[in-house]
Each structure stands twice: as structure tokens, then as C-alpha cells.
Amino acid sequence: IFKFLGAISVDLGKDRIKPYLPTILTPLYRELNSNYAEQDPTLKNLSQEIIDLLKKLVGLETFSLAFSSVQKQANQKRAMRKKQRALQTVANPDIAARRKLKRHKNKAETRKRKIESLRPLHKAKRHRSHALKDLAMVE
């Protein structure tokens, strides 16, 4: 898709690409700023190359304006999601409690896996799965 965006940008040219610049920059910006574990470095390099190509194509000033608007929009979305999560914690405490329990359980499992990888002879105690008990809410 990134190669397609780059090809379309070159094909449209300087004047006709300007209205579509924020739309093209959105996935490129998302890929550059993502920080998930299994990130593909070739994808990040490709997005950087296409951003450089767009910068040369439309000029620094036009590119900067479009890029800053994409950045601003992404930050607003992130802030809105964070606010929604905080509001949901207050509005639905049972859902928030369930989410918190799940997060703590996953954290403990991760810690046990890490201990096992660092010390192979040491076996961490594993939580026995009781399907119905895990689904029940803790009071």
C-alpha cells in the first residue's frame, strides 16, 4: 500500500497531490510513530522514503503544514481515546474491574515467562485454569 501511495503521488504531480496529502500522510505517520513489539523495520524505512519523496515533490512548506495537521489529528484521537477510557472507568466500574483483573493476570503470566527464560531450571508456579472460576467476578 505504501508503494502504491508513493506511485500515485508521483503520478499525480505537485499540484494535484496537495488536496490528498493529509490522506496519504496518515498511514505513513502512523507507521513511523508506532511502537509495537513485532514492527517490521522495512515498512518503517519504506514509509520514511515515501515521506522524503513527498517532501521533495510538494515542497517543504506545504509538506510541513500537511504533516503537522496529521500529527495534530493523531494526538487529538489519542487524547479522546484516553478520555473515553477514563470516563468508562467511572461510568462502568464492573467493566473496568474486569479489564484491570485481566491486565494483572497477563502481567503475572509475562513475569513467569520471563523468569523461566532467564533461569531455565527454575519453574515458576503456573495458575491452574479453572474456566468457570476465571470468568466469575471477584468481589
From TrEMBL:
Q: Supply the gene name.
A: Utp20
**Compositionally biased residues, Basic residues:** 98-130
A cellular-component GO term for this protein: 90S preribosome
- Give the species: Formicarius rufipectus
Q: Where is the segment annotated Disordered?
A: 95-139
One Pfam family from the record: UTP20_C
Ranges where the U3 small nucleolar RNA-associated protein 20 C-terminal domain occurs: 1-116
Any idea what this protein is called? UTP20 protein
The cross-references to InterPro entries, in alphabetical order and at most eight, read:
SSU_processome_comp_20 (IPR052575), UTP20_C (IPR057525)
